[in-house]
Amino acid sequence: MDGLNSSVVSEFVLLGLSGSWETKVILMITFSLLYLGTILGNLFIVFLVIADSHLHSPMYFLLANLSFNDVVLSSTTVPRMITDLLTEHKVISFQSCMTQTCFIHAFGGTEMVLLIAMAFDRYAAICKPLHYLTIMSPKTCVLLIVISWVTGVIHAMTQFSFVINLPFCGPNKIDSFCCDFTRIIQLACSDAATFEFVVTANSGILTIGTFFLLLLSYAFIFVTVWKRSSGDLSKALGTLSAHITVVVLFFTPCIFIYMWPFPTSSVDKYMFIVDFAITPALNPVIYTFRKKDIKIAMQRLNKKFHYDRFC
Does pTM top 0.90 for this prediction? Predict the structure, then answer.
């Protein structure tokens, strides 16, 4: 990476979250518990989907992939954020900063497309029930996952290509607890306004584009259910409630960060916290309490555990 960029700056300083020592300790404990919940909750869903044959369906296959992606996305930022809370000098090397940013955008982009895939699955299940298993065949499910990963990687590499060759020879302080392309570009010692616009627009278009497709899929589902049930939308709301909750939690911070016309670093910090620390921890809780199949699978697993233990 050094060969690609001849910048004088070899490291960046993350300003992180300010506050008293007591506040930082409280934040460290809070973020540690959230991260622990993210790891245990999401990996438990992955394990449950693999272990329980009753969950071997397209919907839960996509959910398991979303849970795995949440674990990786959270792991790109939260562990360092926790350790930096108790560190005076929060220094990150140029290479590590670029790597972290690429992972953030790769897995963030993957998550957006995964949410579209899950919405398409619900559309097929509700609007095309007789053809559901044909539409959501194993081949289609794998293809959707591949498209999600490829989209995320292309999104990250596109942004990386704009940033890596910029000269960095002056200020090296990033007013955040993690690296992000838009923050890094602002530190370039050349006029990078065009690059900043392109990078922000790239993330904004992906965010708004996927969000629009999600709204479109919801509209199709609601109209279909409304026609079939004489205006009763409770069934559609019950089926989609968990997915809509996750979409709102994930996309709201992204829209504020990349599309809000008056960005401020203090607000962006909290938006990042929602996306990387809070939402991944809440997703297992949301799907566990909203999905009856998950509850039944947990009961089966508990019975099997007790049976194996006493037999």
Answer: no
